[in-house]
Amino acid sequence: MAVNLVIFDCDGVLVDSEPLTNRALTYILNDIGIKITYEEVLETFVGKSFSNCLEIIEYKLQRPLSKSFSKDFEEITFKLFEQELKPVDGVTEILDSIMVKTCIASSGSHEKLSKTLSLTGLLPRFTNRIFSVTEVTRGKPYPDIFLHAANEMGEHPKNCVVIEDSIPGVLAAVAANMKVFGYAERTDPQRLAQAGAIVFNSMKQLPELLNSI
Question: Known SUPFAM superfamilies for this protein (predicted)?
Fold first, then answer.
């Protein structure tokens, strides 16, 4: 197998945003009347598109969300980002070492991606190579976003490797017929492996994994 393209998820893989986003979501869900713990938020929402998350929240509420919900959640989340967001440990050095093409394929919106990548100094590394689930019909665990990224980058799926940290993301990569490495810093390694990922625990391991293909 020739690896011509490495496709990175963003949240939890490039930027350490997952804990902050999920703290904000836990806060706002409890505020609107959904009693839920941080751990339950992780289990229910991580890796899913925002539109899918909204559907789940409305199902739990049994009523439509207020028109201000998305904006309110974004304001809380971005405030935390501005205060605490950092790149995932070691990822900057890893990006410097990868000799093939790279891109991002994320469940986040372009606005969120631009914000998090700018705050962490990673945005210039992915100029014109950032793909959002808003560009495709279906979010993860469907393969649409990864197939779209590969097509836009001019590569066949079999020559792509995906770096993911969520179960829906791993399932999406497998469905796209791409090899996938599952970053297990904050996700159960056994579940990542069961979903189809080759599991690793530190970004320092990634160059060796890519070279082993």
Answer: HAD-like
